[in-house]
């Protein structure tokens, strides 16, 4: 996100979803990508516990739609521990 121009970055949001297990994380990522025009930044498995955190970016409305779809898809398979959309994050936040 740091490479975006300041005016474009002001419209952007960061979406974060934390789920139990890789299968649920992949289902969440698939649902998010299909639901809205977002860019999946990647995923990070946590140490222990089997939690996986997905990160995505897009315009605020798209990020909200993607996180909602991801949460719904993952909750059908496993536990969703948290989800959040952060509008106008700092340039290096979430990288």
From TrEMBL:
Top-level taxon in the UniProt lineage: Bacteria
Entry keywords, A to Z: Bacterial microcompartment
Gene3D superfamilies: 3.30.70.1710
Primary residence: other
Organism: Acididesulfobacillus acetoxydans
Matches recorded under InterPro entries: BMC_CP, BMC_dom, BMC_shell, CcmK-like_sf, CcmK/CsoS1_BMC
Name of the molecule in the record: BMC domain protein
PROSITE patterns (alphabetical): BMC_2, BMC_CP
Domain BMC: 13-95
GO cellular component: bacterial microcompartment
Domain BMC circularly permuted per the UniProt entry, residue ranges: 1-89
Places the protein is found: Bacterial microcompartment
Family: Belongs to the bacterial microcompartments protein family.
